[in-house]
Each structure stands twice: as C-alpha cells, then as structure tokens.
UniProtKB/TrEMBL annotation:
Coiled coil: none annotated. This is Cysteine hydrolase. Residues 19-206 form the Isochorismatase-like domain. Keywords: Hydrolase. One of its GO terms (molecular function) is hydrolase activity. SUPFAM superfamilies: Isochorismatase-like hydrolases (SSF52499). It comes from the Bacteria. Residues 74-93 are annotated as: Disordered. InterPro entries: Isochorismatase-like_dom, Isochorismatase-like_hydrls, Isochorismatase-like_sf. It holds the Pfam family Isochorismatase.
Amino acid sequence: MMITITAEPQSVQIDLARTALLIIDMQRDFLEPGGFGETLGNDVSLLEAAVDPCKAVLAAARDTGMLVIHTREGHRPDLSDAPPAKIERGAPSKRIGDLGPMGRILIRGEPGHDIIDALYPIEGEPVIDKPGKGAFYQTDLQLVLQNNGIENLLVCGVTTEVCVNTTVREANDRGYRCVVLGDCCASYFPEFHAMGLKMIKAQGGIFGWVSDSRAMVAAVG
Ligand code: TIU
C-alpha cells in the first residue's frame, strides 16, 4: 500500500509493506545520567525531547504491523571489538568498559547498554548490536532488511549528528529511502540537531527526507 508522508524538501510516497521503523540507540547509556553520554561531558536531559515522539511513532508502527528494528551501540565485555582509537579518545570521566552506576560503560549485557524502558523492544522486533556509529558497519542490518523486503526506512533516535546521520548516509548509499523523523531525534547540541537535519534534506534531499512524528502517524494511520 502506497502512503504519502509530508516531508521536506518534498512529500514522499513509499510502499508501507516495504518500510521499516529504525530506532537508533535509544539506550540508557545515552539518555540517562551515569552512562556513556554523561561521561563525555554532555547534559543527557537534552535527549528527553525525542522520547515521547518516538513512543508515538513506535505505537503507530506496531499498530500497522510494520517491521520495527532497534539498534544499540556497544561492545563485547572483553573489548575485542572496540577500536583502541575509540577507547582512548578524549578525556571522558569514565572510558568504555569502566564501571559506572549502570554497569560497565557501553558494554553489551550491562543495564546502561540496554534500551530505555519507554521504548523497550517487544517480541519479533530485531535488535541490532553495533560496534560503531553507523548501524550497517559490522552488523547484519542489511541482511535483515533484505530478508524482509525493506526499501524505505523511517529513522528515529540519538544522536542526530552522530549515529543517526552516519546510519542515514550508510543507508542512502545502499539504496534505501530514508525519512528522518526530526522530533524523534535529539542531540546534546541543539545546533547540531538542527544542522544535522538540514544536511539530510538540503540539495533536493541529498541523503533523504525530513519529516516528524505527527506526519508519520497521520500517514500510516
Ligand atoms: N556522542 C554522541 O553524540 N553519540 C554517540 O556517541 N553515539 C550515538 O549517537 N548513538
């Protein structure tokens, strides 16, 4: 079934049966105090704005039976998949693998690595664990999309200019139509959020389209 989503730089027509909702890294490590985001010096409360809009689109996607995919950034407990260059970077208060109040920072299986309660995956929703910022790099995301006949992605998550932008660029080069739901994304830097969305929709939609939760819910409802 073809649907039309109001978006920028123009409305986009997509086949609902070939569309998945992709929710990127809505993890406690980024959204809650004591996690990776805070160790980097960020005010994690800035990401809260995306939670309710994500809840609304997640509910709408589940109602339609659309494929919902969640991603999580993180590493193996032995850090064998974590590049030293990533671990050593900057001067965080705690490094990847160090023990924090939500367990070891950005480590799979730890409470902080998991998805926030408000958006917790349900049975049948694939969760993609990724070692990098992009969700395609060293994961089976493309295989999951191919096996489900997916051509279009409705993209939500954090942070707008880091994991959302990286993933959208990866997806665009692989031929997927990406519709980024702007209010379902957030950044520790409001100006990067705004610019991150602008970069996607500029030049006639060089990486895809930008829409929002209301337009998505109206289009699939
Ligand atoms: N630091 C930051 O803005 N983001 C990340 O490290 N990962 C994601 O965006 N998920």
